[in-house]
Amino acid sequence: MANNLKSSLIKSFRNRRLHMFGVFVILSFIFLVLTKFSKVYTENISLNVDYINLPEDVAITLQKPKKLNVEVSAVGFRILLYYFKDRRLLLDLEQDVIQKDSAYIYEPMITDKAIKDKIGYAVEILSVKPDSMIIPFSVLASKMVPIKLESNVTLAPGYDYVDSLMVEPDSVRIIGPANVLKSIKRVETQLYKKENAGVNSSEQVLLKPLENKQVKMSIKQTDVVVNINKFTEGSLQVPVKIINLPPKVKINYFPKTVPVSFYVNLKYYNDVLVEDFVVECDYNEVKDTKKSFFTPRLIKTPEFVRSAKVKLDKVEFILTK
Predict the structure, then answer these.
(1) Of the candidates 96, 93, 111, 95, which has an alpha carbon nearest to the alpha carbon of residue 57?
(2) Per CATH, domain 40-139 is 2.170.120.30
(3) How far is CA 46 from CA 69, 79, 108, 113, in A?
(4) With left for phi above 0 and alpha for psi between -120 and 50, is residue 129 left, alpha or beta?
(5) What pLDDT, in 10s, does the model give residues 114-170?
(6) Are domains 40-139 and 141-226 of this chain identical in fold?
(7) 282 - beta bridge partners?
């Protein structure tokens, strides 16, 4: 038993020494890293230049993206952090550049806010190459074109359109090279589908992307306005009026009234009156002929009636004098 106790004590002592040695190694490594990265270093950093706040009617004409090589001085930790960041330098074309003729000019050592925003204000900028960047651009043309709705809408039984399907806005501003814009006459929507519609609605629909990627659109969607209501049919007996009858000619005609059917928004049905319709028969059409009948024609209908039709083809007549 004494031998076992002695063996356990020796083993425990050895394990403790190994543990202390491991801790010492780790602490030494941490101290070494802290010492190493606390020193000041000089480093070259490469930044890919991109742009923000580019006006709608301006296009950058560079074929390849610009790059900046920035020489900086900072403690190692500061430089190390940079390598975990996005390496794009965002130039604000409203604040970071000056405009001269058809180019933006960026002088990084004079206007260094964009670089400091990227790599940090605790880093000293020693030099930037190139020390001046010219960014040529061209001003694009623009014009308004109509939006054409592509739709497949079915209405609930008894419903009809108060107004045809509309889009709001009904036009879009397109921006691009003038020679490209000439061929664009309209912009179409994605297919708008609605089944068994029975209520008014206003819903968004996307515009179809243009094939030419040089052309931009001022909006990407529009609203489809569906304005519908219940419609119904009705019929009235409307008096027949004979026109162009010579004073010396006397006739008798039958019937004196003809049926007129109409199609109207249900809310206006009770507003439909006989006197709002005019049906005429023209004597000039039958004089000097052997006809014994007129063809009645509907001359006037109320503005709010969608459609109307005379349901009788002939009005018989005889000369009485």
Answers:
(1) 93
(2) yes
(3) 5, 12, 13, 16
(4) beta
(5) 877 777 776 778 888 888 888 888 888 999 999 999 999 999 999 999 999 999 999
(6) yes
(7) 243
- Cα(192)–Cα(148) distance, rounded to whole angstroms? 11
**Reduced to 3 states, what is the DSSP secondary structure of residue 214?**
coil
Amino acid at 195: E
Which residue has 């996005």 as its token pair?
86
For the chain, state the CA radius of gyration.
Answer: 43
Residue with tokens 């010396």, as numbered in its chain: 248
Tell how many helices (H) and how many strands (E) occur in the chain: 4, 26
Q: Tokens 């405009």 — which residue?
A: 99
Q: What architecture does CATH give domain 141-226?
A: Beta Complex (2.170)
Question: Strands 187-188 and 141-148: what pairing?
Answer: parallel
Between CA 229 and CA 231, with CA 230 as vertex, the angle to 5 degrees is 115
The closest of 174, 173, 201, 203 to 190, measured between CA atoms, is 203
Residues lower than pLDDT 50 in the chain? 5, 9, 32-33, 37
Number of Cα atoms under 13 Å in the Cβ half of residue 135? 23
CATH of domain 232-319: 2.170.120.30
